[in-house]
Amino acid sequence: MNSVRMVKAAICTGLLLFATSLMAESMSFSDLPKEQQRVLENYESRWSELSAGQQERLRLGSERWLRLTPEQRQATIGRFQRWQNLTPNQQRNLRQRLETFRSLSPEQQRRVRQRLNQFQNMTPEQRQRLRSRFQSLTPEQRARALERMQRRSLEGAQRRPRPADSP
Questions:
Q1: From CA 119, how far away is CA 105, in angstroms rounded?
Q2: Higher per-residue confidence, 11 vs 44
Q3: Using CA atoms, how far apart are residues 71 and 50, in angstroms rounded to an integer?
Q4: Residue 108 and residue 160 in contact, taking contact as beta carbons nearer than 8 Å
Q5: Band of the pLDDT at 73, cuts 50, 70, 90?
Q6: C-alpha to C-alpha distance for 107 and 72, rounded to whole angstroms
Q7: Higher pLDDT, 8 or 71
Q8: How confident is the model at residue 157 (pLDDT cuts 50, 70, 90)?
Q9: Could you write out the DSSP letters of every residue in the chain?
Q10: Which of 70, 109, 114, 139 has the most crowded CB, counting CB atoms within 10 A?
């Protein structure tokens, strides 16, 4: 049980790092609903030391946590534990890839998700063959292949009619 509390606290700390900055009036810990106090109990002793923005992000994060189903909470804990096991370099790379993904148009994001699903639905042997084929390319060939894939993805997104364009 103590481990779950630590994970909850760590998730809330993560929300501090990644949530957008919001300014709000500072509130006392006792002003929070009891459920939120339970989720944020590791912050009680230093709550008054946190900025109003940090308090607000933690409050919002605890609200989100409380809305999750038990299955979603377990999945969140698993993702957080995997994150903690990454090296700082791997975490930085993952943040950069997330930024790149967020900069894509909704259609491009949809296509990326679709390709990821296709890859995940491959058998392990098919995935290994694809990885081996890609790794056997020279750096120049890899760069050209990636450019071709990006160009095709963009062209596909531009060719696809939007719902408003349909008859």
A1: 21
A2: 44
A3: 31
A4: no
A5: very high
A6: 26
A7: 71
A8: low
A9: -HHHHHHHHHHHHHHHHHSPP-------GGGS-HHHHHHTGGGGGGGGGS-HHHHHHHHHHHHHHHHS-HHHHHHHHHHHHHHHHS-HHHHHHHHHHHHHHHHS-HHHHHHHHHHHHHHHTS-HHHHHHHHHHHHTS-HHHHHHHHHHHHHHHHHHHHHSPPGGG--
A10: 109
Can you give the pLDDT at residue 37? 92
Can you tell me the mean pLDDT for 6-23?
Answer: 55
Q: For residue 55, which of 80, 83, 71, 32 has the smallest C-alpha distance?
A: 32
How many CA atoms, within 13 angstroms, populate the side-chain half-sphere of residue 113? 8
Residues 17-65 have pLDDT tens digits of 554 444 445 688 999 999 999 999 999 999 999 999 999 999 999 999 9
CA terminus-to-terminus distance, the chain: 58
Query: CA-CA-CA-CA torsion for 153, 159, 160, 161, nearest 10 degrees?
Result: 160
